[in-house]
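Researcher: We're teaching a course module on how sequence relates to structure. For the next exercise, students receive a sequence and then see the predicted structure as tokens, so they can try to spot secondary structure elements on their own. Here is the exercise chain.
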Amino acid sequence: MPADPGLRDLVARVGAFHITDGAMKRAQRAIETALEKDEVDAGAGHAYRSAVRRYFESFDREARAHLRDVDRRLEHTNQVVFNLTAERGVAVKRIEATQAVLNALAGAEGSP
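Model: And here is the predicted structure for the students to work with:
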């Protein structure tokens, strides 16, 4: 029985990923073979969609956890940059203030 275009599209999308999970690889090979032979039945389609759901839901959770970690690290980095910028501003003001005192000293040393 010919597979519906939605299933063919799903198989192509999943096939574009570099899959390392053995069960997902087997499911992908099985459905690709069934599609080539035009032998996709309801059971094969259901089994494939279930494998895709298991794999990609897990993959999604992992990716979201990684994104949260990166966001947390970026937030920390931004705070460090903010703090260093403020610290730099204080150092510049200190230099300006001390330079003003040293300039006044030089002027006072030259007067009687």
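Model: If you want an answer key for the exercise: The longest helix spans residues 42-109. The mean pLDDT is 94.
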